[in-house]
Design a protein that fits this description.
Its EC number is 1.3.8.6. Keywords: FAD, Flavoprotein, Oxidoreductase. By secondary structure, this protein is an alpha+beta fold. It has 12 helices and 9 strands. The protein folds into 3 domains: 119 residues, Acyl-CoA dehydrogenase/oxidase, N-terminal domain (Butyryl-Coa Dehydrogenase, subunit A, domain 1, Orthogonal Bundle); 107 residues, Beta Barrel (Butyryl-CoA Dehydrogenase, subunit A, domain 2), CATH 2.40.110; 144 residues, Butyryl-CoA Dehydrogenase, subunit A, domain 3, CATH 1.20.140.
């Protein structure tokens, strides 16, 4: 049986069955022993630790929620706890894994043909081929559903892609990218698997990024990039199908936020016990205990919401607004938690060697991606009022 983390005060991890707990224990050991020692160095250099990919592959935790010929399907709760454990050590590695095993693999699994699944998914499970997900664009973030500018034009047995994507995690080294483009014929959004060596396709690393620095976000450009019809996902006929993928993965960011909160809670708690000021460990002062308890409370409340979302996914009763509320609240709590943890460290909190500033910065990315606070607010607001408020009104003249 796996021990609950210090931040899991109600022992939610015990909801996993014994086999799932054993899998999670391996993930925890990998994160603590392999990721933690190098996380700060790679974050500082804004580089990706490619040597970890073999270790991820050995864990065999890609595609846990689907059934394979040699492995049963595990719960969404387990896949969610895997995200938590990775985020607790390094949100960058959790994001890398989520893009590959979540967004990219799920797109092919949900919307691909049987031939496409056989062609790509086994290699993705073994991490011999790394995936990315190309939806966001230079001019399209929250409104990308209606404003998608990348186009796809059918020419015989090929599709010609033109346009650009931005913020594409794993984009610089992914072997395949699931790209969403608008069909010039019917105006609908279609999905394509673009492989790394496709002529007319280029990926350029984004520079100057100050959050999730180890994640290799890329600008993608498509200039007459020719993709065979065999690489078009037949189940992707409109943005409604794109949203089927996002519905599966959206709740995962709440788990990333919970993991990050648990990570900074442990860092701050341990530091408070060791740091002596005015003749006593700072853990003995009321103001410091207030910070620690607040961080723990944020993590615990967010974990409760995230657990319920995962359970509802397993039960097939999950709705968009439930994931939106969990993501909104968890990332709001995360912002406060990392700020409090930084305060516990005082001036030492801005030193990368103490790790807390890495979480402080990474929290800003988690706060924004997979739906900003404002967008998730409007998703929940629409569900409780029955009125959509996404489109603003021009001021009267």
């Amino acid at each position: 049986m796996i021990e609950p983390l210090p931040g899991d005060v109600y022992g939610y991890v015990e909801l996993l069955d014994p086999e799932e707990q054993e899998i999670l224990a391996r993930v925890r050991a990998f994160a603590e022993q392999r990721i933690a020692p190098i996380a700060n160095r790679y974050w500082a250099d804004a580089e990706f630790p490619h040597e970890l990919i073999a270790g991820f592959a050995e864990l065999d935790v890609v595609g846990l929620a689907r059934e394979w010929p040699d492995r049963r399907a595990y719960s969404r709760l387990l896949t969610s706890f895997v995200s938590l454990e990775l985020s607790r050590i390094d949100p960058s590695m959790a994001t890398f894994f989520g893009v590959h095993a979540g967004l990219a693999l799920t797109s092919i699994d949900l919307l691909g043909s049987e031939e496409q699944k056989e062609r790509w998914l086994p290699a993705m499970r073994r991490m011999e081929r790394i995936g990315a997900f190309g939806l966001s664009e230079p001019h399209g973030g929250s409104d990308v559903a209606g404003g998608l500018e990348t186009t796809a034009r059918r020419e015989g047995d090929e599709w010609v892609l033109d346009g650009a994507k931005r913020w594409i995690g794993n984009g610089t080294f992914a072997d395949l990218v699931v790209v969403w483009a608008r069909d010039t014929d019917d105006g609908e959004v279609k999905g394509f698997v673009v492989e790394q060596d496709t002529p007319g396709f280029t990926a350029t690393k984004m520079e100057g990024k100050l959050a999730l620095r180890s994640v290799q976000n890329a600008d993608l450009t498509f200039e007459g990039a020719r993709v065979p019809e065999a690489n078009r996902l037949p189940g992707a006929q409109s943005f409604k199908d794109t949203n089927r993928v996002l519905r599966v993965t959206r709740g995962g960011v709440a788990w990333n936020a919970v993991g990050a909160m648990m990570g900074v809670y442990e860092l701050a708690r341990d530091y408070a016990a060791e740091r002596v000021q005015f003749g006593s460990p700072i853990a003995s002062y009321q103001l410091i205990q207030d910070h620690l308890v607040s961080i723990l409370g944020h993590a615990t409340a967010s974990l409760a919401m995230a657990v319920k979302v995962a359970q509802m996914q397993d039960a097939g009763t999950f709705r968009d607004e439930q994931a939106a509320l969990a993501k909104r609240e968890a990332t709001i709590h995360l912002r406060d938690a990392v700020a409090r943890a930084r305060e516990v460290f005082g001036g030492n909190g801005i030193l990368l060697e103490n790790s807390v500033v890495r979480f402080f910065n990474d929290a800003e990315a988690l706060y924004s991606y997979e739906g900003t606070r404002e967008i998730n607010t409007l998703v929940v607001g629409r569900s409780i009022t029955g009125v959509g408020a996404f489109v603003g009104h021009a001021p009267r003249r």
